[in-house]
Amino acid sequence: MEKPDYQGESLPLLDFTTILASQEVEFLLSGEEKVPLTSFDDENTIICLFFSANWCRPCHGFTPKLVHLYNTLRTMGKELELCSFPSTTMTMDSMLTSRPCRGLPSRLMSVCTRDYAKDYGEDAFQFTRKKREELNALDDSKRQGGKIDQLLAVMSPVMFWVLQILVSELVGKTVGLFFGAQWCPPFRAFTAHLVESYKQLRSSRGGCFEVVLVSSDRDQNEFDVNVRGMSWLAVPFEDRTRQDLCRIFNINAIPALVLIGPDGKPIRTNGKNIITLYGAKAFPFTQSSIEEIEASLKKEGDLLPRQIQDIKHEHVLKLDMLKAYVCDYCKRQGKFWAFSCDACDYDLHPTCVEEAG
């Protein structure tokens, strides 16, 4: 079934007031003031209907962002009013620093969805479908435009790495946008893999590969802990570029690694999987480089026996392809080819095999 379009055309005055009146609503509240429906007479103002509840935890997190958006737009001279349903009036009024919601005007332009306002902030004004299409097109242009300096520089042309450097210095390099936060255990676990690959590439290929941290830390203190002692760059915590990059590349979970080629265009959005599997060998992370690795692995496997009898284990061990394992003989980590016993959960490096005579 096709989903309804909540970014549709404007609704006339009669629709809005009739809907409220049909439910025996005679007025709306603004603090302690009662605002009658008959006061809707300003057709230049946009109304946002905010559906939430005081008991809803996500609403508590989103409300301050909405209030900030409201105050920013009012400061810019934009005509915007908020109407909350049904139980957030006191919370909303207490947070609006400029003034509480006044008499709601006469025209409902569109429903301001939570994600829309959160993603684009004041740039989303006037919250129409056409405006959203324009912003989406702008994001597509930044993502595919091939200009790394424009992609990364919004508020500031610099990034941190002990000292500040110009974003323009990344032009012509392969760049990994590393999305994560110090409070995230999977982020910390993957960081170890990325650090190893990063150091190998810095040693073998110089400065052709850079990593840029796009932090999801909750405050400046967490961010400072995260970047302390790290080997790579970071978008400054106060820079809105952090939020913009998450939106542009549709980052819904961390950690994530987006790989940008020397031409400024995305190579892969699944960089985390590539680094975890192949490490620095996958550089420059193109499709052809991955295919070369996989062809080499296949050739290596073709030279190994399908099964063996090792003197250290009672069962026959079969050749298997594993993403990662720990050899039960040398206790070191291994990848890809292993000789395994599924019944005993026993794995050996091919180099650790001692075949029975």
UniProtKB/TrEMBL annotation:
Domain Thioredoxin: start-end pairs: 126-302
What PROSITE patterns does the database record attribute to this sequence? THIOREDOXIN_2 (PS51352)
Quote the InterPro entries the UniProt record gives: C1-like_sf, DC1, Nucleoredoxin-like, Thioredoxin-like_fold, Thioredoxin-like_sf, Thioredoxin_domain
UniProt catalytic activity:
[protein]-dithiol + NAD(+) = [protein]-disulfide + NADH + H(+); [protein]-dithiol + NADP(+) = [protein]-disulfide + NADPH + H(+)
Which Gene3D superfamilies did the record assign? Glutaredoxin (3.40.30.10)
List the Gene Ontology MF annotations in alphabetical order: protein-disulfide reductase [NAD(P)H] activity
Q: What class of enzyme is it?
A: oxidoreductase
* E.C. number(s) listed in UniProt: 1.8.1.8
List the Pfam families hit by this protein, alphabetically.
Answer: C1_2, Thioredoxin_8
Q: Which UniProt keywords apply?
A: NAD, Oxidoreductase, Repeat
Belongs to which family? Belongs to the nucleoredoxin family.
Tell me what this protein is called: protein-disulfide reductase
Source species of the chain: Hibiscus syriacus (Rose of Sharon)
